[in-house]
Amino acid sequence: MATTQTLPQVDQSHKTVLEPIATPTRLLFGPGPSNADPKVLQALARSPIGHLDPLYLKLMGEVQELLRYTWQTDNRFTLPMSGTGSAAMEATLANTVEPDDTVLVAVNGYFGNRLADMAARYRANVQLIEKPWGEAFSLAELEAALSEHRPAILALVHAETSTGVCQPMDGVGDLCHKHDCLLLLDTVTSLGAVPVFLDQWKVDLSYSCSQKGLSCPPGLGPFTMGPRAEEKLAARSSKVPNWYLDVSLLNQYWGSDRVYHHTAPVNMNFGMREALRLLADEGLENAWDRHRCNAEVLWAGLESLGLELHVPEALRLPTLTTVCIPNGVDGNAFRLHLLNEHGIEIGGGLGSLAGKIWRIGLMGYNSTPKNVELLLNLFESELPRFRETVAVAA
């Protein structure tokens, strides 16, 4: 005979009655996320299928192959981590760093510091080489630091989102081979929009995100590991100290065995496949040229309005432009004005650049001549009133 269980009374104190979600339409011209391609949003809205469904397993392989194309690499371990770009960033370190390994981090912005923080959490001996925020590293500076610290890994940011600097990569991989260390490269704000040649540059580890040059919402972190990094992973004396990001386990799912590891974000990978398909249809060279051409028009237009750009032209990212806030102008008030009155988001500065710059992103689907014209017209028409406020106060 079944027994009747007496349940406690349901606590109603946190119950909230809400309307269906409604969000405003924004044009996202900040450092990310950027607006997703409508075709990607349609793919995300498809009915889910199982993460071991044969159709989904086929899709996984398509995503991997298109990521290899986008990164220009043949790396076997290439996959989208189930998590944002920071998860993929952490995966590069979690899989290769062992306690007391020396990790040399080249810091010229906010995300170099994040790499250093993560490496330290895996008990690495973290050493820094630093440059002012807005500059890049020379080969001579990198070689001097490699000679001094003899690291197991050199971590470098290709596209520093906090400053708008694109780090030149010619010769860096050769230096790392010469000094017998792995080269780890952050391509979060460059993948799909700025020339990236991982294999030619002899990059051993890289990561990115879904929500910038790839025109997909945030939620996946592309990750890739080359043969030299695989060797270091295989030679570990202990398990990878992060189960979720352990590539040796993930490869059993993303490799030929297709052994369950975790429940994959199926619909996010629908979106990633569509985003990568659209990029391949456009062609990498055309996408790179589109971003460069639109950025150059933006740069010229901002300078014609009397604004100063933070980074020398030779080092500027086509995806992320940093603009010096004019003296006396409340940069945050101007950003909020654009957001609240025009539905336009631009970013502010981070770290040592907080309050000093605006960050304007033109990435992926958003990189169009129409959007450049819109931004320049807004700066021309709206910024003068903030300058006038300064003049009246003076």
A few lines on this structure:
The chain has 394 residues and is of the alpha/beta class.
Explain this structure:
- With 394 residues, the protein is α/β, with parallel strands linked by helices.
- Helix content is 41%, strand content 14%.
- The chain contains 13 helices and 14 strands.
- The strands form four sheets. A seven-stranded mixed beta sheet has the order 2-10-9-8-5-3-4, with helices on both faces. Strands 11-14-13 form a three-stranded antiparallel beta sheet, covered by helices on one side. Strands 1-12 form a two-stranded parallel sheet.
- Helix 1 packs antiparallel against helix 10, helix 2 packs across helix 10 and helix 11 packs parallel to helix 13.
- It is globular, with a radius of gyration of 23 Å.
- The C terminus is likely disordered.
